[in-house]
Amino acid sequence: MKNRRQIIFLVDDNISNLTAGKAILKTYYDVFPLSSGSRLFAMLENIKPDLILLDIEMPEMNGYEAIKKLKEDETTRDIPVIFLTGRIDSGSELEGLSLGAIDYIFKPFSPPLLLKRLENHLLTRSQQIALKDYNDNLQQMVEKRTRQVVELQNAILNTVTEMVEFRDDVTGGHIERTQNYLTLLVDKLLQENIYREEVSSWNLEFLIPSAQLHDVGKIAISDTILNKPGKLTAGEFEIMKRHAAIGETAIEKIMETTAENDFLHHAKIFAGTHHEKWDGSGYPRNLKNYDIPLQGRLMAVVDVYDALISARPYKQPLSPEEAEEVIISERGKHFDPILVDLFRELTPQFALVAEYCRVQEGVRDKVRGKDRVHDRVRDSVRNRAIDRGKSYAVLSR
Ligand SMILES: [Fe+2]
User: Fold this and answer.
1) Where are the alpha helices (DSSP H) in 172-261?
2) 214 alpha carbon to ligand 1 midpoint, in Å?
């Protein structure tokens, strides 16, 4: 590219002008003499020049019409055009420049002056192209690096999420399912225009995946408590409750070392508020009603629903219909009443997500060769009677 001879289109209906022009320019440039506007556009189909020298007064299509057409087409818009004309009035010059020409040269012209002006314009043009290429490359590089950072972030996130799942073995695909339930509820909020102010300020691309970290604080809870096959003692329950604040603090620490980040902002709220209750009896802060951030109120519904329909060593699973009844009975107590009303409209979809994720999970477990506790429990209790009250009571963990 460095040594490529630059291409000039010379457009003039006067043959002797074309001949004279080519004689002056051909030492330095590849010159294409073209005797009309239609020939110019026919040639442009095959070759894009570095610059066009355009006469104004031509039959059929004059120079003004030609430049308008050039500027309308994005493939020719950026080619510099210089009018080379016998019209020496300032009005014509102004019109030519207003239509996008970069210069206006009067005939008869001085050959050295024409060459010098061409050289200057072509230098500017090549600098513009080099700058654009540089910017394009820079943008591609930034996009590539951003992709790498996002991939790395997702890989770390998946690892942390899997660690939480493996530690708290009985939760199975809980994290995956809660994200799906959450998506259903947030979509419903958007459709129904409810809590619009809060929801419209959220970037859902960050909100939904950030919910994965809601139980990240469980990493700090001992295995004996986390997987205890029975009801926790009051003391053990107090320790278990710490996972909300621990998760919140852990995410806050990451936030101190990173730039402002929507993902972490939501993750911190999910972790710290998903066990708060509408009536103020939740933890860690006993927040009440609208003092609980909407993320926490949403997560409370989906977290409990999923826990209800899941088998755990200390309880049997409820059917989706039974879980629905429990959630409704806690309307205005544990849960935001408006969210419970929306949930009621979505119960068939919730049940579908639960079933789909369980099938997926079963496939994954088979691949891992892993005989998970919750599968054994679920299979053994599937047809047994269920004590719903007891089931909900032990879910506070
Ligand atoms: Fe939790």
Assistant:
1) 174-192, 196-200, 204-210, 223-226, 234-256
2) 6
